[in-house]
Design goal:
There is one protein chain. The protein is elongated and about 55 Å long. By secondary structure, it is mainly α. Helices cover about 60% and strands about 0% of the residues. It has a two-stranded parallel sheet. The protein has 2 domains: about 150 residues, no CATH class; about 100 residues, no CATH class. The protein has 15 helices and 2 strands. GO terms for molecular function: RNA binding. It comes from Neomonachus schauinslandi. This is Pentatricopeptide repeat-containing protein 2, mitochondrial isoform X2. InterPro entries: PTCD2.
Length: about 270
């Protein structure tokens, strides 16, 4: 069964190359398609250097304004049959997400299907980039399919992707129920409450604003989320691309709360005072 849907390596390389070199075909020497100074020397038999390069590339890729350089390296790795590891897939999907085009979605889908056929387990982070890209390209069904295969969906990125899926799929009543459950659910003090991006909540409000009953319920829940400290000013893009150096810095990101522009106090305190 798997053999009938296997994607030839040539097709993967062709899709990658065409996104970087749109005027170059699939034939001819690989060297001819590499820009002057391309880092071919990194792809040697020295595995230690390759792993070090991969780790550094993953760490800095999200902070670079351009992503085609990193994509060129992935093309070279693919052409030399270098095995992709979990970090490499995260990098590849992050690059496709940043490029945000129909072509990059095709590349992401091709790489993902190839990985699954090989029985490789993709990390939650890689899958989140794939879901976000599909949503950005208005491919809601694809986003839902990928999201449903994420085993643990409790983190802040998955929480916000789930809201965006409900928004774009017009599942508005369920959307309100999800937010209500997050704001009013009886949780142990040892269980972290779900957190939402202000940006994502703004999109949710825009979606329900023409339905008075839903809008009233949303505004009520929105206020409770703020009081509970479940709203962050970080955008989904920032949450996706954040690479914590250690657990402490990661917790600092998640613990950040919105601040009242009027009182400059934590918003939950400001709301109670008012």
């Amino acid at each position: 069964m798997a053999a009938t849907i296997r994607l030839p390596k040539h097709d993967v390389l062709q899709a990658l190359r065409s996104s970087v070199y749109p005027r170059v075909g699939g034939s001819g020497s690989t060297c001819c398609r590499c820009p002057l100074g391309a880092k071919r020397y990194l792809l040697t038999d020295n595995i230690v250097k390759l792993k070090e390069f991969q780790h550094k590339k993953v760490a800095i890729a999200y902070h670079l304004p351009g992503t085609k350089g990193a994509l060129e390296v992935l093309i070279e790795m693919k052409s030399q049959d270098v095995k992709f590891n979990k970090d490499t897939y995260v990098l590849a999907f992050a690059i496709c997400y940043k490029l945000n085009s129909p072509e990059s979605l095709k590349i992401c889908t091709t790489l993902r299907e190839e990985a699954l056929i090989k029985g490789e387990v993709l990390s939650r982070r890689a899958s989140c980039f794939a879901v976000a890209l599909a949503l950005n390209q208005n491919q809601v069904a694809k986003a839902i399919s990928i999201f449903s295969q994420i085993m643990k969906q409790e983190n802040i990125v998955c929480t916000n992707l789930n809201i965006l899926i409900h928004i774009q799929a017009n599942m508005l009543k369920t959307l309100i129920e999800v937010l209500k459950d997050a704001a009013e659910g009886n949780l142990s003090k040892f269980v972290r409450r779900r957190e939402f991006s202000e940006e994502v909540l703004a999109k949710a409000r825009e979606k329900v604003k023409d339905v008075p009953a839903l809008l009233a319920r949303f505004d009520e829940i929105y206020g409770k989320l703020h009081i509970n400290g479940q709203v962050t000013t970080y955008t989904l893009d920032t949450l996706l691309c954040h690479t914590p150096g250690n657990r402490k810095s990661h917790m600092m990101l998640l613990n950040r709360r919105t601040v009242s522009h009027r009182t400059f106090q934590p918003l939950n305190q400001s709301l109670w005072a008012e």
